[in-house]
Write a structure and sequence with these properties.
Strand order of the largest sheet: 4-5-6-7-9-14-16
CATH architecture of the largest domain: Alpha-Beta Barrel
Largest sheet: 7 strands, parallel
Oligomer: single chain
CATH class of the largest domain: Alpha Beta
Helix content: 25-40%
Distance between the termini: 10 Å
CATH topology of the largest domain: TIM Barrel
Structural class: alpha/beta
Strand content: 5-15%
Number of domains: 2
Number of helices: 21
Length: 692
């Protein structure tokens, strides 16, 4: 195997000191250098085309590449390069050419997502959705790709997450669950709340089991068996949630999912399967996590999947659909609870409830209209679900404002819905002021508009509380006391589980800084103090879950936000992907000659000397990936070259100088070069290869 090393760009720091950089390559035994020729460097006005034989040429740029090529040859380097317009000028010396580097990125990121220049895309973008406890839930933590653990859910709809992130792997609890459970045990946690994926268990998403049939993905079923068994083995009580925004995509395509009454039986059948399979060990169940978010963000604002709203790309009606969806969610919850109570609860001796988000709404002033505005906000928020589940009907304020847009429960449905929980989970993070907006639209506009309120985040310039990283999260400990006490007083003193509570740091925070989360410690101290005060005043709270165990995929924020008690390193090194990719090209495209033209991993751009030189993780990355490349070659792939990305730390597109891929550390202020430990590893490895 001929291993080639090094790679640079034809712009930026490299062009200022190419002889020094070529000398570094020679020193470290690299025998080839892949570089790019800049179209705009040679033709500065970009209009040359030379169809008529004319055009302005920047001879200084042309000569630069002459000097670079000549010096590379002088030092014994091979020259794969790119750009077709340079054949005549440089072809006497360059014998290996590429036309384009990653043209798919030009098309996809330049003209589909608009993430790269020229930034073109459709103006409407569907926001993808994925998952949220101390505990965790499906898409937040569980790998979605290999092996076949899960089929598409509604969360796979087109999305626009920072840095084009996805949760295809997230923090990969699917393969690391034992490690994660061991962390819980080490830190004395005695319960774990997780979510089961509907589409992981029923891969074709068309089961519904109305006729008793349907394909079951036993690999997915067995994963939850293993997780539950290991939790119990370690003395940790499992709390299982059945739905965390992950509707099987086929049900949305077939009958628009939560907009159809058909969904009620489908969900009850899915729940029934879980009760029967896991109920001998799981004694604490939740049907839904934050169903209000499904209705409000999925069907009112269109901010989450399925991205429906008035004038949204995927259709919708913000004045009616949120209320239809909530009605079907409530009926689905009640139907599942009915199944559990009639078929399983007596023998399994478990309990079941629902998880509801609750921002505390404080009146902006002590005026009667602001007091009423705050109460409307509470009704339209937690009351939208908890009121019918407790009393069998929607809050009076919702009935008076929404009128005939609000679906009605039949007498039989009231009987099923009323009292359909053994406990209620409350997710509480933050608080806002509410002000009456003094405006009532003559024609209904949306669920949010029906509140008739104005959100306020400060009084007289004083914020309601300090902000965490997320722009919606203000740190307001007394809101915890107010929210829990409100549920106690207004809903018959139910048994409460405080099911989510936490705050985030920026996703960009690095080690070891990311471990020093004093602000989070103070957050938890103050919120738990207020929770205890509510308990001392009579609230029946039997459990508390921090959000979350791990830093993970945070919906629209992707990986730019960290809520975890455990820091997650999000670069997933998957060496077997190298073997799979190379073998795939061999098998499917006629066994072509392959040059592995880019391979590498980065460090944070902020890493300083000497720490930046100690890149053991990069060494292990290259070891494992090159091993898999060799395995593909041993299995018949025709690979004639390998290039590491990259020789130098440099400008990394949208990431700018915040990311370092180089084998050589570059001080971006002085352009001084310092070889990293990975460069010396490459040198020794290449020496061994040549000797063999």
């Amino acid at each position: 195997m001929a291993l080639k090393g090094g790679r640079g760009r034809a712009f930026g720091i490299h062009s200022l000191g190419f002889q020094e950089d070529v000398d570094i390559m020679k020193k470290f035994n690299f025998d080839a250098y892949r570089f790019s020729i800049s179209w705009s460097r040679i033709f500065p006005n970009n209009d040359f085309c030379f169809l008529d034989g004319t055009g302005e040429i920047n001879w200084e740029g042309v000569d630069y590449y002459d000097r670079l090529i000549d010096y590379l040859i002088l030092q014994g380097m091979h020259l794969p390069t790119m750009q077709t317009s340079a054949f005549e000028r440089y072809g006497d010396r360059v014998k290996n050419w590429f036309t384009f580097n990653e043209p798919r990125v030009v098309s996809a990121l330049g003209y589909d997502s608009g993430f790269h220049a020229p930034g073109r895309c459709r103006s409407e973008r569907q926001i993808g959705i994925l998952l949220i406890s101390f505990g965790t839930s499906l898409i937040h933590t569980q790998q979605l790709t290999k092996p076949r653990p899960r089929e598409p859910g509604i969360s796979t709809l087109d999305g626009m997450i920072p840095n084009n992130a996805t949760a295809d792997v997230s923090v990969d609890e699917y393969h690391h669950y034992k490690e994660d459970v061991d962390i819980m045990k080490k830190f004395n946690f005695d319960a774990y709340r997780f979510s089961i994926s509907w589409s992981r268990i029923f891969p074709n998403n068309d089961f519904c089991f109305l006729d008793g049939t349907g394909e079951i993905n036993w690999e997915g079923v067995d994963y939850y068996d293993r997780l539950i068994d290991y939790l119990i083995l370690q003395g940790i009580t499992p709390y299982a949630n059945l739905y965390h925004y992950d509707l099987p995509l086929a049900l949305h395509k077939e009958y628009l999912g939560w907009l159809s009454p058909k969904i009620v039986d489908a969900f009850a059948n899915y729940a029934d399967f879980c009760f029967e399979r896991y109920g001998d060990r799981v004694k604490n169940w939740f049907t839904f996590n934050e169903p209000r978010v499904v209705s409000a963000l999925g069907y009112d604002s269109g901010f989450h999947a399925p991205g429906r709203c008035t004038n949204c790309k995927f259709g919708g009606n913000s004045a009616t659909e949120p209320y239809i969806v909530t009605h079907n969610l409530i009926l689905s919850h009640a139907a599942a609870v009915k199944r559990y109570r009639e078929k399983y609860q007596v023998d399994q001796k478990g309990k079941i409830g629902i998880l509801l988000d609750f921002v505390w709404y404080e009146p902006y002033t002590h005026s009667a209209i602001d007091e009423a505005a705050a109460q409307r906000a509470r009704d339209f928020h937690i009351g939208w679900f908890l009121h019918p589940l407790t009393y069998g009907y929607y809050p009076k304020s919702i009935q008076e404002i929404v009128k005939d847009r609000l679906p009605k429960f039949t007498a039989d449905q009231v009987k099923m819905v009323k009292g359909s929980y053994d406990y209620v989970g409350v997710n509480q993070y933050t608080s806002y002021y509410m002000k009456d907006n003094g405006v009532t639209n003559p024609k209904p506009v949306s669920y949010q508009d029906d509140w008739h309120v104005e959100f306020k985040f400060d009084r007289d310039g004083v914020p309601i509380g300090p902000q965490a990283y997320s722009d919606w999260l203000y740190i307001v400990p007394w809101g915890m006391y107010s929210a829990v006490t409100y549920v106690k007083i207004n809903y018959g003193d139910p048994v409460i589980i405080l099911a989510e509570n936490g705050m985030d740091q920026p996703g960009s925070v690095t080690l070891p800084e990311g471990l020093r989360d004093t602000k989070r410690i103070n957050y938890y101290k103050s919120y738990i103090t207020e929770l205890k005060r509510a308990m001392d005043d009579g609230a029946t709270v039997i459990g508390y879950f921090a959000w979350s165990l791990l830093d993970n995929f945070e919906w629209r924020l992707g990986y730019t936000s960290r809520f975890g008690l455990a820091y997650s390193d999000w670069l997933y090194i998957v060496p077997w992907g190298m073997y799979s990719a190379v073998t795939y090209v061999k098998i499917n495209y006629g066994d072509p000659v392959i040059i592995l033209a880019e391979n590498g991993m980065d460090q944070p751009g902020s890493v300083t000397l000497p720490e930046g030189l100690r890149d053991t993780k990069r060494i292990n990355y290259y070891k494992s990936y090159i091993t898999e490349l060799k395995r593909a070659m041993d299995d018949g792939a025709t690979v004639i070259g390998y290039f590491a990305w990259s020789l130098l730390d440099n400008f990394e597109w949208r990431l700018g100088y915040t990311s370092r891929f180089g084998l050589v550390y570059v001080d971006f202020k002085t352009n001084m070069r310092y070889p990293k430990e990975s460069a010396y590893w490459f040198k020794n490895m290449l020496k061994r290869e040549k000797n063999n």
